[in-house]
Backbone:
């Protein structure tokens, strides 16, 4: 069964990184801004963008690995 691909959790992990990053950026950052918690807002913004960036990097890597399969 050469070339059938692999079954794993990477697709779920990528979607979780992307979704949680967007949720953090939309909800947490706004909540901290309304509460005037500026340090927490900065950390939440950093973590949100980190999740989004990691999700996109993993997605690009996953797509490139799929194209390299024999």
Residues:
């Amino acid at each position: 069964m050469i070339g059938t691909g692999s079954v794993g959790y990477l697709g779920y992990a990528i979607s979780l990184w992307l979704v949680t990053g967007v949720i953090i950026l939309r909800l947490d950052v706004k909540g901290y801004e309304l509460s005037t918690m500026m340090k927490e807002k900065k950390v939440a913004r950093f973590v949100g963008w980190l999740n989004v960036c990691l999700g996109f990097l993993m997605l690009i890597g996953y797509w490139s690995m799929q194209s390299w399969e024999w």
Summary: Residues 11-62 form one domain. The mean pLDDT is 88. The CA atoms of residues 5 and 69 lie 8 Å apart.
